[in-house]
Amino acid sequence: MKILKTLAYVLLPLLLSDGVFAQTTSITDVAADDKSVEYLRYIFGSTVDIITGGTGPSSPDSILGAMSLILNTGMLVFTGLIVSYIFLTGLLNSAHEGVPLGKLYNSMWVPIRVVIALSFVMPFAGGYSVMQIGVLWLAGHGIGLANTTWNAALDHMSGTGTLYPAQISVNYESTAMQVLNSRVCMHGINTADRHVNVVDEPIEIVEGVSSTDLRTPGVASSIEIAPQHIVMQRYNSYYNLVSAAGAYTAAWLSDFSAGVPRYYGSNPCGSVKLEFAEIDEGTAIDSAVVNFQTKVVGIYADLDADLDPLARQIVQKAVDDSAPDPDPLAYNDAVKQFKFEYEKAVNEAMSEIATLRINKWANGNPDVAGTTVGARDAGWITVGAWYWDFQRINAETQKMTSVKAELAGPTSDAIEHDDYSMFIDALSGYRQNMLVTNSNGATVNAMERSSYAENNDSLNFVMNRTESVLNFALSEPDPITGMANVGHMIIGSFEVALAGAFLTDLAACVADDTSEAVGGLIGGAARPVTSSLCRITNKTLWSLVGAGMLLIPIALMLAFYIPATPMILWIMGVAGWFVLLIEAVIAAPVWAASHVFPEGNGFVGERAKAGYMVALSLFLRPTLAIFGFIAGMLLVIVMAKVLMLIFLPAMSGMLADSLSGVVTLFAMLAIFTTVLMQIAHRSFGLIHEIPDKVLRYIGGGQENLGEASQEQQGRSIFVGGAAKVVSGAGHSMRDKTRSGAKNMFDAAGGGLKNAAGAAKAGMSKMSKMLSPK
């Protein structure tokens, strides 16, 4: 026994020491205060401290440790019996065959595996055996690997600001061409008039905000919420009506020696107006937004300045055929620079916003309940909780970078100029001869660049309505958010409609009971109308409840359950990892004892190999789950785009010439919703599918822990419960409407009858008093 214990003390440091693998496993280090390690202590006791370099207790301090002590002792006895059997049969085989341990056993590996098996199964600390502690150590360093992977994802978000490339909506070439058109207009009119009648005014008008940060560069002021609209350039008339009249008179007196002053109205050669998206001030990113918008204004101004020399060349060529041809590369070079600077500003802004958000995560958010722990603080175990924060970063950055440029062209005042067509023809000639970049990145003549013809055929009414709803559903960068918006819209509309139908039914039934209570000629005449109205409104209410039984479960799924799917599947994945770890710790003594069986060659016998594949799965599962979570977020975006690409053409072909209406619209939306829900579940199913299946590539078994089936059961319960709630609410509302109206007007009717009786008795008494005796 002393020999075995000595071997255990020798083997254990080799298995568990951070020092041996310090240079190669630093990415697997885990902090002592990591949440996963903290939760492992609840299950396995302070023996878990071995993961972080501590020492385990000499006696069990957990119920599983106490039970494991007995299990390990039993397995030690069992292993000893197997060892005795092996050596007894080996001794007999040696005597019979003349070979150590006989021909059946490997004389080198069998003794080594016997020693290893005995040392692995021996109780070591806290009641756990060497093999069990090895399993815990392996799982702990799997936590460290997952934490490092998660931090790498956060670092990437901090550096790029998004999960995927920004969806920049700027048409660089179209924008540049419009600016060039305005420049040609301005210089052309001034050249034809031989007088500066149109000038560029690079001013910025901030609407609805008193901040002068953007309007007056260099003026210091406190940072306010970013502006929404900016006019950064306009090509305006130099004169107004009055000053133009005076200048024209003076020019006439001098025989127009300095040209002809004229007034061409407001912005005769157009303008550039930038519209920035409104950003929530509470996100504490307003400084980053202001910086980005300042850069964008400057980038547009630089484009305008870069195209000015080209506009002058085009105008000069129009009035003088001997002038050099305009530089065919000038336009393309300006567009390239414009694109480069714009994308650079977008990337810098996205990185700045993401850094602000992620730093806030790291420090927690004490202003919001339950968010005092940041994303980096708790480690991999809370990854699923940050799905919406990731999407919020995407939404913020995508929204911020969606700058709409309203490009106004020359007005009729400029176009009606006698020489305007000459300059526009010169611009058209340049456009045909200029060099541009094609889709492959090569520089070609503008006439050589092929493009698909635009299809101007519109869908029918139903397809247009369907497209509008789908666009609303996918209005957010993340389709899960768009689906939630659709769900909330359905719920809100249903609640308003149900309340209106309830009040209408109540009023109609009250009127019906009133006419019944009043009776007589008036009541009898009104009764058919009020009775019909009561029945109609009641049927309407019930029809609405019936529609709600179909729509509300779907809406609840869209608004609440589907958005929670990433978190639900993540929690199921974490639970599966804990289950796998508990199973591995309990099975570790059996696995350790399996090393003693003599079959096979090498350090590990045939019966023990499968355990190492399970241990590898245990080590990699947290990291692979993070890969599945991030990949699921990306996949759901891609598949939603694929669905949008093929759904409308497919439905249009399917409908063909059939008569379409509201039912068709609802059917198409139901199909789209169903497919999108399946996409969401399939995408986020990667959280457990990747850990389950990735080891197949090296011959490992599939560790299916049943997370998907558990989530489907929860989904069924959620939908069934929602349908019952809607049905029960409808029954209750109908009964209360009818009974409430009846009770109310039974009392009112009784009051009317009592009042009529009292009036009749009073009239009788008065008649007797007045009648002659």
What topology, given as strand order, has the largest sheet?
Answer: 3-4-5-6
Through-space gap between termini:
134 Å
* Class computed from helices, strands and strand pairing: mainly alpha
Give Rg in angstroms: 40 Å
Shape estimate: flat
* Number of E strands: 8
Described by strand count, sense and barrel closure, the largest sheet is:
4 strands, antiparallel
Number of domain units: 3
List low-pLDDT spans.
1-25, 208-226, 450-460, 729-734, 736-773
Helix and strand string, N-terminal first? HHHHEEHHEEHEHHHHEHHEEHHHHHHH
Query: How many helices?
Result: 20
Oligomer: single chain
* Secondary structure: helix percent: 55-70%
Percent of residues in beta strands? under 5%
Overall mean confidence score, pLDDT = 74
Primary descriptors:
two-stranded antiparallel sheet; DotA_TraY; 3 domains; 773 residues; four-stranded antiparallel β-sheet; DotA/TraY family protein; transmembrane; membrane
How are the secondary structure elements laid out?
Blueprint: H1 2-16, H2 35-44, H3 63-97, H4 109-121, E1 123-125, E2 128-129, H5 130-160, H6 172-193, E3 198-201, E4 229-237, H7 241-253, E5 271-275, H8 286-319, H9 330-362, H10 375-378, H11 387-401, E6 404-408, H12 412-415, H13 420-433, E7 435-437, E8 443-445, H14 461-473, H15 479-518, H16 520-594, H17 609-655, H18 662-684, H19 686-693, H20 707-770
Helix pairs in contact: 1-4, 1-5, 3-4, 3-16, 4-16, 5-9, 5-16, 5-17, 6-8, 6-9, 6-13, 8-9, 8-13, 9-11, 14-17, 14-18, 15-16, 15-20, 16-17, 16-18, 16-20, 17-18, 17-19
